[in-house]
Specification:
Elements lengths: L39 H39 L7 E7 L2 H15 L3 E5 L3 H9 L5 E6 L2 E6 L5 H17 L3 E6 L11 H24 L6 H26 L5 H29 L4 H10 L1 H4 L12 H5 L4 H14 L5 H28 L23 H27 L7 E6 L3 H14 L4 E6 L2 H9 L5 E4 L8 E5 L5 H17 L4 E5 L12 H23 L6 H26 L7 H26 L4 H10 L16 H7 L3 H14 L5 H25 L11 H7 L4 H32 L2
Parallel strand pairs: 1-2, 1-3, 4-5, 6-7, 6-8, 9-10
Antiparallel strand pairs: 3-4, 8-9
Helix pairs in contact: 1-8, 1-17, 1-18, 2-4, 5-6, 5-7, 5-8, 5-11, 5-13, 6-7, 6-13, 7-8, 7-11, 7-12, 11-12, 13-20, 17-18, 17-19, 17-20, 17-22, 18-19, 19-20, 19-22, 19-23, 22-23
Length: 761
């Protein structure tokens, strides 16, 4: 074996080596890279592969967390509603009568009510107005005055009425109903307060989550506070503008007060989200959504009374920002400001506490020499291109997403649902002959012009069949000699609001003609979905899962944007999320029983199709795509879905959208599968498939015009240096230090090679 000549002065420990018997080689310095691959390219490839796997996993994990917690939270809270501990005040001209009525009410449904006997009629009425009681009853002999407050919530008023009215009727009391705070004609369902509160909470938490990834310099406290104050005023003005002059929900006298409440609400939620960014970093959006929306919406007492939801939400109602904002808005809009102070105080205390805690955390980090804000930028440009050189343009795009979302949400959703008006609801009039049915239908049409689209039949079985096919909302069967009572057929599963309208209207029709009315329910809702909310929330979960995977994937896994990578990923993701949402709706909450394969397949198709539709705008607009995507699939889709409100009670345009949008196709598919033996589901599946196929074709065309970028746009080094507070001198020193480290590593590697040469390796 030949040995190479070695410099004795530098490597004396290796001189005169021999491999003879009994000779032990001298010790050598252990290589820093021993046991590790020395090939830098292999090491870089290994790291890139691990990062790619992690980024692909994030495409599944982030939507799973966000969509999963929202649907589980909403469906778990609202799929089964039952009156619980609703406060009722009772007064009477005699204590004995008040006690007897209280005993009868408790015996009828003790769990539904929490009864208090008060001294006077005025006190009973005031308890309802002050919202200390859901209802009050004043008894004077055989007369009963029943007090409710529509402004405190339509859900609460109808729920307590369903509990108390039967007891009053059993005692043959003559009932006189009085609404102590009626809802105004321009907001007859109380939707104004609910949508304004929801929009302002969204405006509060969303900007900071986006700034964390794109403009972290705005999170510095000295910049964040004035920005938050100005943003709060801007969003409150936008909310008041849309709800006031544009939609007419607010009158001029209320606008200034409402603006003040809205501004405080945005500021309080924004301060809370700023604190969460300090605590949770890039993941702050998840606890923010959980706290402000997932828990806040059910606990708000706005859409549903907290007394028909699990008791946990009554506790949360006392301190969460959305309940405080919603109740403050109600006080201003429906109660002349009475009772608003306590809710405004809660918002103020929450905002101050959040800002103080943020300062404490910042001081602690500064003391340790750490930055109070992120020093990396994950999203170069929200528009999908390189990072804009102009900060003004960058901040405009940052604010455009939440501002646009709030504007579109209020315009479309509040505009559609603020004043439910029955129009063209399909109802059959069934007589013993067609002529009799036509005559009756003509008379009803004259009294209810535009409310119903009457079909005349002479066979009750045909009417029942059409209802089961969801071609009719109900049928009114005229009495005959064999059956002297009128019959009303309805299908609760096709829409609870339809049944409420039909039972009220045709109950009055039968009463006016002194006819007994037999109301027969052909498709009753099950106990686990007694208000019919499952179709809406499960369908909403499918739609959200569809667009979330694209929004998340664009930034988390840009390597998956090419169609050859995207399509298999979406296929697996769609099945995965459909299965997860079934587990939430089924075993986890008990809202759904059975129908696994049908719902799994339909859900996967809906998710896949919405994801492809979202890809179109993602290719064109980056994260700004959230605006058109949400406008189409959610803000237009929910009013058109026939789920939260009957399609026959919203403006006619939404009736047309009901036939073509993916959200209505999803909710109607769920209804058909769960309650109608899948009758009619085929047309909805075709709608979803067409959305997917057409979207795929458009994406393929776009990809030919503009090649897909498979990596994130880089953030300029000078931008990162400025974010870290580095001066040019600091950058030069850092570069020199890096160069020295490279030289040291090269020297070590050279030493290793010399040792190997000395040993003949």
């Amino acid at each position: 074996m030949q040995f190479k000549q070695i410099n004795i002065e530098e490597h004396d420990s290796l001189s005169n080596h021999t491999t003879g018997p009994g000779h032990q080689a001298p010790p050598r310095r252990k290589s820093r890279t021993e046991g590790e691959p020395l090939d830098p390219q292999a090491l870089a490839a290994k790291r890139a592969k691990a990062e790619k796997i992690g980024r692909t996993a994030a495409v599944f994990i982030m939507p799973l967390l966000i969509v999963g917690m929202m649907i589980w939270g909403y469906l778990g809270a609202m799929h089964h509603q039952e009156a619980r501990d609703m406060p009722v005040a009772i007064a009477a001209t005699s204590t004995a009568q008040a006690e007897d009525f209280a005993a009868a009410l408790e015996q009828a449904n003790a769990e539904a009510v929490e009864i208090s006997i008060v001294d006077s009629q005025r006190e009973a009425r005031d308890e309802v107005y002050d919202r200390d009681a859901s209802a009050a009853v004043f008894l004077d002999g055989k007369n009963a005055t029943f007090y409710t407050a529509g402004g405190a919530g339509v859900s609460a008023a109808s729920s307590i009425q369903a509990v108390i009215t039967p007891v009053m009727l059993e005692q043959d009391l003559k009932i006189s109903a009085e609404d102590v705070a009626p809802l105004p004609a321009n907001d007859p369902s109380g939707m104004g307060a609910m949508f304004l509160a929801t929009a302002m909470v969204t405006a509060g938490y969303m900007p900071w989550s986006m700034a964390f990834s794109n403009a972290p310099e705005l999170l510095r406290r000295r910049r964040a506070l004035p920005l938050l104050a100005g943003w709060s005023l801007l969003m409150s003005a936008l909310g008041a503008l849309i709800a006031g002059p544009i939609l007419g929900v607010l009158d001029g006298a209320q606008s200034v007060q409402v603006m003040g409440v809205l501004a405080l609400g945005v500021f309080a939620v924004g301060a809370g989200q700023l604190l969460l960014t300090r605590l949770f970093g890039a993941m702050a959006v998840i606890p923010g959504m959980f706290l402000f929306m997932v828990l806040g919406q059910p606990a708000s007492n706005l859409g549903m009374s907290i007394h028909v939801l699990p008791e946990f939400y009554t506790f949360l109602h006392q301190f969460l920002p959305m309940p405080a904002l919603g109740e403050a808005l109600r006080s201003v809009m429906y109660f002349n400001g009475d009772g608003a102070a306590i809710h405004l105080l809660i918002l103020t205390i929450g905002a101050v506490a959040a800002l103080l805690l943020t300062q404490v955390i910042d001081n602690a980090r500064t003391a340790k020499g750490k930055s109070t804000i992120p020093t990396e930028i994950n999203v170069a440009g929200l528009h999908g291109g390189p990072r804009p050189k102009s900060n003004a343009w960058r901040y405009i795009t940052l604010g455009a997403i939440p501002l646009g979302m709030v504007g579109v949400m209020l315009t479309f959703m509040l505009g559609a649902m603020q004043s439910p008006t029955v129009r063209d609801m399909p109802v059959a009039v069934v007589g013993s002959t067609i002529e009799q049915a036509e005559q009756t239908a003509a008379g009803l049409e004259g009294d209810m012009e535009g409310m119903f689209d009457f079909t005349v039949l002479d066979d009750p079985e045909e009417a029942k069949s059409l209802i089961s096919q969801q071609d009719l909302a109900g049928a009114f069967v005229l009495p005959t000699a064999e059956n002297p009572q009128a019959v009303l057929y309805t299908a609760q599963a096709s829409g609870n609001s339809n049944v409420q309208v039909l039972s009220t209207v045709f109950g009055q029709v039968a009463g006016a003609q002194q006819l007994p009315l037999d109301h027969q329910e052909l498709a009753p809702l099950p106990e686990g979905d007694n208000v019919g909310m499952t179709a809406m929330y499960l369908g909403m979960g499918w739609i959200m899962a569809g667009f979330m995977v694209i929004i998340v994937g664009d930034t988390a896994a840009p390597h998956a944007r090419r169609l050859k990578n995207l399509l298999p990923l979406l296929a697996g993701y769609s099945v995965f999320m459909s299965a997860v949402l079934y587990l939430i709706a089924g075993p986890f909450t008990g809202a759904v029983h059975g129908h696994f394969w049908a719902l799994l397949g339909t859900g996967a198709l809906a998710i896949f199709s919405v994801a492809l539709f979202s890809t179109i705008f993602s290719r064109l607009m980056g994260m700004l795509a959230m605006l058109p995507i949400l406008a189409v699939v959610m803000f237009l889709g929910v009013p058109a879905s026939n789920a939260s409100l009957s399609i026959y009670m919203v403006p006619q345009a939404f009736g047309w959208l009901h036939e073509i949008l993916p959200m209505p196709a999803a909710t109607e598919s769920i209804r058909s599968i769960l309650y109608f033996d899948s009758v009619g589901v085929g047309s909805h599946l075709i709608t979803l498939a067409l959305w997917g196929l057409i979207s795929l074709a458009v994406v393929m065309v776009l990809d030919q015009i503009k090649p897909v970028r498979g990596h994130m746009h880089p953030v300029p080094e000078e931008v990162l240096a400025e974010l870290r507070g580095q001066t040019p001198a600091d950058k030069a020193a850092l570069a020199a230090e890096s160069a020295n480290e490279i030289d040291d590593e090269a020297s070590h590697l050279a030493d290793d090679e010399l040792e190997k040469d000395a040993l003949g390796v």
